[in-house]
Amino acid sequence: MQRSGSGWFETLLNNHTNVSSNGEIFSAKERRINASSIVSTLDRVYNLDWFTSASKNECSAAVGFKWMLNQGLMEHHKEIVEYFNTRGVSVIFLFRRNLLRRMVSVLANSYDRYAKLLNGTHKSHVHSHEEANALSRYKPVINSMSLVMDLKLMEKMVLEALEYFSSTRHIVLYYEDLIKNRTKLMDVQEFLGLPKMELTSRQIKIHKGSLSEHIKNWEDVDKILRGTTYESFLHTDYTN
User: Fold this and answer.
1) Residue 92: closest CA among 152, 153, 177, 27
2) pLDDT tens figures, 166-190
3) Quick one: which of 72, 82, 106, 139 has the most CB atoms within 10 Å?
């Protein structure tokens, strides 16, 4: 799902000498119009006919890309699962435990697409603390009336994705676990059959510290989530 740390995670993967992860290739709608266009695009990737700055040619032990759940993946899951299992494709699911933090990131990123806070330029990911601080100054207003339902819908999509792709060879990761325990990256490398390396990324986290510092109507949000199954989202803080 967007704003779940996938950009940061992909830079970590591409930091490995033997990994070529080619970005969000299905963001282009013409590549996901139907199952046939999806399969054609997948063939280009796994036949090694897809060339990007991430390509490492003969050094690649693992080749892939980043695929958002809302980019044709759920609609055509049957055909995709059949393709993955036939071609021996491994799946890494990356989710975020704190869906409220994800929501803040989504709203802030959406705002910056138009506001372009960094000298008239929109950036979804940053590489300096100055840029991170500039973007984090914007505090979105969260619709507190639909908040619980919005969180439930996010959870539902995650559960559906895991059910649809349960027959694939896959591993499930959470952003917060990667932040707290970097040995998780070793698990990923083992899953992909890679020689173990220390992986690094230049990306900087934008929204650090307490969520109360990043939501304009914090008191409304706090009141709505108190006593619900999502109350823990109010307090959990993960900072890298």
Assistant:
1) 177
2) 999 999 999 999 999 889 999 999 9
3) 72
